[in-house]
């Protein structure tokens, strides 16, 4: 699966995107985020601040309980500030 | 129509090309968002907009569809830039055309309100104290909620 | 600034010339009203706008002042034509610039709503059945009352 | 004083403007309008349809009870339809 990070989450993880295999026992966006937090401590910090990390699954906004599969693209980012 | 682009755009030319000559159109509303030269009292030298290619277009198109579902619109144009911009440069243009004035005005406000809280863009400002990611504003969230 | 004129105006050029380069401006809202080619199902060949020279300018300037009293505006432009126009031609342009998006959008809607119920203009349409003065609309009155 | 008529009131009175001396006993816009209705029967008809005739005194909207003087410019017109 492809994991993407944007804005200051990209800077804190030190990577814009990474390819990983769906880890065993991970079924939802929330579980995946927690697992990724072990690789990227500063991503874990951001996750701990509730409401600050948004998630898109295959380029569509989803809630933390959305199911993930190995072929998905999952993106994490802060609240948007365009316009 | 939705365009997401790195290149600057010419507001006057875009508006001049938008939906004129359709004789059932009674009103055209536009909004242009510009890079401001100050933010929280600090001078902003430049700003870089990061975006999520693919999702950005998809999300703005979804917002356009929602606007068309709510109002009888003859034409919709959204242009949004990404990349590095200087103060005074246009970031975003929204234009709507309708037979009815209220539909054009309300849908234009709706489009920019939802764009600001849903389209995946992130602003990073360059000030005298370095680079800084702009934080989301509660009043933008409040403006977007007006339409729920 | 208020301009009341017989001559057509170029919407793209007017907007291009409006308030760009002021780096504290964050948003510009515009509305353009156009001659529609049909009215109540009848084809409109042309329209003539009569006005009250002197009072028209005075009244629009008073509406501009009211907008500036209510919102923090960096610039306001109102151009309104009179005389004979064809379907598709611009009748009126309202543009507002502000540091804040909501101020630009709201004041633009306010200006056109009040213009439509207060500025002394009267539309006379040419249809296949002759000439006909357009009647004032209750929903224009309702739109204007939103701001009271 | 100068009296002006616009739009279909201009057509019904047959004149865009006329100069008159302030008639004896006329103190308000409403009294003046009634007096003018005797000169222009179709203006009187329009006045009879309440709410259909607007008035400006020296280019400012006024109510029917506004006072008039001989040097004033007074305009009568239907509800506006610009924009």
Which short descriptors sum up this protein?
heterotetramer; A: 83 residues; alpha+beta; Ubiquitin-like (UB roll); five-stranded mixed β-sheet; globular; B: 148 residues; Aldehyde Oxidoreductase, domain 3; five-stranded antiparallel β-sheet; four-stranded mixed β-sheet; 4 helices; 9 strands; 32% helix
List the helices and strands and how they pair.
The complex is a heterotetramer, with 2 copies of chain A (83 residues) and 2 copies of chain B (148 residues).
Chain A: E1 2-5, H1 7-13, E2 17-19, H2 29-39, H3 41-48, E3 54-57, E4 60-61, E5 73-77
Parallel strand pairs in A: 1-5
Antiparallel strand pairs in A: 1-2, 3-4, 3-5
Helix pairs in contact in A: 2-3
Chain B: E1 2-5, H1 11-16, E2 27-34, E3 38-39, E4 42-51, H2 55-70, E5 73-81, E6 83-85, E7 90-98, H3 101-118, E8 121-127, E9 130-133, H4 138-145
Parallel strand pairs in B: 1-5
Antiparallel strand pairs in B: 2-7, 3-4, 4-6, 4-8, 5-7, 8-9
Structure in words:
The complex is a heterotetramer, with 2 copies of chain A (83 residues) and 2 copies of chain B (148 residues). Helices cover 31% and strands 22% of the residues of chain A. Chain A has 83 residues and is α+β, with helices and mostly antiparallel strands. Chain A has one domain (2-77): Beta-grasp domain (Ubiquitin-like (UB roll)), CATH 3.10.20.30. In chain A, strands 2-1-5-3-4 form a 5-stranded mixed sheet. In chain A, helix 2 (29-39) crosses helix 3 (41-48). The longest helix of chain A has 11 residues, at 29-39. Chain A is globular. The termini of chain A are far apart. Chain B has 148 residues and is α+β, with helices and mostly antiparallel strands. Chain B is built from 4 helices and 9 strands. In chain B, a hairpin with a 2-residue loop joins strand 8 and strand 9 (130-133). The two termini of chain B are 23 Å apart. The model of chain B has no long low-confidence stretch (mean pLDDT 95). Chains in contact: A-B, B-C, C-D. The interface between B and C is large, with 39 and 39 residues.
